[in-house]
Amino acid sequence: MSFGDYQIELYLGALGGVLPAHPFDYDELERNALAALSPELRTYIAGGAGNEATQRANVAAFERYALVPRMLRASAERDLSVELFGRRLASPLLMAPVGVIGLCTPDQHGDVHAAEASAATGVPLIGSTLMSDPLEEVAAATGDTPAWFQLYTPKNRDLAASLVHRAEKAGYEAIVVTLDTWVPGWRPRDLASGNFPQLRGKALANYTSDPVFAEMTGPDPDPGTVVMTWVGTFGHPVTWEDLSWLRSLTDLPLVLKGICHPDDARRALDEGVDGIYCSNHGGRQANGGGAALDWLPDVVAAVDDRAPVVFDSGVRTGADVVKALALGATAVAVGRPYAYALALGGVAGAVHHLRSLQAETDLIMAVDGYPTLADLTADCLRRL
Q1: Residue 91 lies in a domain
Q2: Does residue 378 lie in a domain region?
Q3: Above 90 in pLDDT, residue 40?
Q4: What is the arithmetic mean of pLDDT over 251-256?
């Protein structure tokens, strides 16, 4: 069965009088999801840094590339599988870490529900440090689908070690260290609404469930103590000197998220990192940085097949996934789209959206004559 067969399910359902319950168009998805979310979550999820030029550039960058159709190379079966750290995945799609995904469902258990969508689709979840449920419960909900844990490195090294060891014990298969969020970016939408979920005690379950953090707060802390303790330890500015320490915490693959310069990619691999994650945080952290997609080819060239390269920032469609793969990404992660889908339609909505992305990716490769991921190279694209 090919991913593209999802459209057959939908057409057959329509013949039986059942039309799709969830949107396909991203603009419609975003509009309806934002209407369903609370005002503070609307600004937090939809907003970006500064005047949001980088956020818009991330999306627009994909329109500057065209995939050239190649005929007489049709294949009834496509192979979208990819190997990441010894695991063969059915598709190259990942769910990017979203720190407030837990708040996106009415029951405030969106992290677990994102994991359930991961289990249903085989799309691995990269769980954020900022969860509304403990990382162990989230990992358990992913079923047989692998999951990775994203670390916001705290200032307290014992707490960092505890989080990593908990993730390792819970079954996460890689540690993704985010480098560009040790300090919050300048986000006017959030500033105007006074919204910062963690300062209101939200999405801190991995801290309140941690024994090291409990020692930091003392027994039976009040909510204010929890928040201020978190404020005091969140956001260690990771430097090259920290890599050997981070590497020593675990034998799991270590992936650095936020790498956009080829020199940084090369040095990271030389320092013992196992994977590179090219991303500008979806434009949420620093404005004026251009589109992450524009930095991807040089990062891929610098990596030179020494490690996998994950990409996110601005991915909205299956066509975007194909283009990022053609520019050299090993795997492609989506963030806002599945957050909106989960907010609007729960687990079923997120499953529909992930399956739709897989289906569109598969069908574009089928129609345009690229039967395997290996066939997608930079030569397949033309810059417009």
Answers
A1: yes
A2: no
A3: no
A4: 98
pTM of the model: 0.98
Nearest to 3 by CA among 174, 168, 146, 121: 121
Please state the φ and ψ torsions of residue 341, each to the nearest 5 degrees: -65, -40
Say what the pLDDT of residue 27 is: 97
Alpha helices in the chain, H assignment, sequence order: 6-15, 26-36, 39-46, 53-61, 110-121, 135-141, 157-170, 188-193, 205-208, 211-217, 223-233, 243-248, 262-270, 292-303, 318-326, 336-368
Domain CATH for 331: 3.20.20.70
Q: How confident is the model at residue 369 (pLDDT cuts 50, 70, 90)?
A: very high
Please state, in angstroms and rounded to a whole number, the distance separating the CA atoms of residues 177 and 48: 21
What is the chain's alpha carbon radius of gyration, rounded to the nearest angstrom? 20
pLDDT of residue 52: 98
DSSP character at residue 327: T
What is residue 155's three-state secondary structure? coil
What is the set of active-site residues?
281
Contacts 24+ apart (CB under 8 A), 292-297: 292/58, 292/61, 292/260, 293/58, 293/61, 293/62, 293/323, 293/324, 293/327, 294/61, 295/260, 295/261, 296/324, 296/327, 296/328, 296/329, 297/327, 297/328, 297/378
CA atoms of 108 and 133, how far apart (whole Å)? 9
| pLDDT surpasses 90 at 195 | no
Residue 247 sits at φ, ψ, to 5 deg, of -60, -35
Q: Whole domain around residue 327: which residue ranges? A: 3-68+79-370
- Residue 84 in any domain: the answer is yes
CB-based burial of residue 198 (10 Å sphere; 0-12 exposed, 13-18 middle, 19+ buried)?
Answer: middle
Contacts of 101 (CB under 8 A, 6+ apart): 110, 111, 114, 128, 132, 339, 342
Structural domain contains residue 376: no
How many domains are there within the chain? 1
Count of alpha carbons within 13 angstroms of residue 125, beta-carbon side: 34
> Looking up tokens 């039976």, which residue turns up?
220
SS3 254: strand
CA atoms of 59 and 323, how far apart (whole Å) = 12
